[in-house]
Amino acid sequence: MPADAGGRRGAPRTQVPDQGELTLALPETLESRQGGRDLLRIGDFARLGQVTVATLRHYDELGLMRPARVDDATGYRFYGVAQLTDLNRILALKDLGFSLGQVKEVLAGVTTEELRGMLKLKQAEAAHDMAEAQARLNRVAVRIAQMEQENEMPDYEVVLKEVPPILVASRRVTIPTNDQVPVVLGAAFGEAYGLVKATGARETGPCIAVWHQPADVFTNEDAEAIVQIDRLVPGNERVAVYELAGGLVASVLHRGDFTNFIQAHAALLSWIEANGYESLGTYREVYLQEAAEGVEAATEVQYPVVAPKP
Fold first, then answer.
1. Which end of the chain has the smaller Cβ count within 10 Å, N or C?
2. For residues 78 and 59, what is the distance between their CA atoms, to the nearest angstrom?
3. Which residues partner with 247 through β-bridges?
4. Buried b (16+ CB within 10 A) or exposed e, 174-201
5. How many CB atoms lie within 10 A of CB 38?
6. Residue ranges of the alpha helices (H) in the chain?
7. Given phi > 0 = left and psi -120 to 50 = alpha, else beta, which region is 154?
């Protein structure tokens, strides 16, 4: 028996083909087409790139990444291994918060300065999102502490929201004592509604009272009776027409009469302080629904606030 290459007798020999016969055993999913280019079927390319087939089709439709070849007979898409670089670039930009439209813009060619500007914008957006998430985390912690202290669900749920500016007709009055609120404020609303009717304006929402002092002030109260209107009309010496500013408010919904109304204010003020917000000094009462037989009155109390600094 002849000796093998290592000189050991009896060892099995491996058949080594001539150099011209040497081939690489490729996966069955790899097709050698188009002048020897190795192409992957769409499903196999999707698995390599860890995306879905639907995602690749979507990118094709958007013109983000075209297949290397589309079968004329079946319409089946094939991709080159080198296209994983393009796919990874798309996924990396998406991970940074870029929309697909922005990704397409980058791939089409932007300058270094333009890309730097886009990245700085994403950085600012991410910082804003982090600040909002931290504020939400703080509110959750306050809510947990409140429930542990009171061992019950709160009577009022405080909601933060942005209210838009509104065009209003307003009669501002001074109310000598709190027990006179229904009479004095009621007459002020009458004057505001009178101007609206006389000018042909249309009411566009519930009436509002704006109070220009803290809720625990019960003498010489400074208040506005406000009617929301649809157009700018001339005011008079007693009723002003102007745009009431919008902005961020903390609000609660009070149902029922005003017997325990002060509790709604207490809940709001406690929440504002606990969550680090700052009240702007005024507050609003939005009279959403009047009491009727079988129906409770509904009043939303809003405190304009400034968010805590990061």
1. N
2. 14
3. 163
4. ebeeeeebeebbeebbebbbbbbeebeb
5. 17
6. 42-49, 53-62, 84-95, 100-109, 112-150, 181-199, 261-274
7. beta
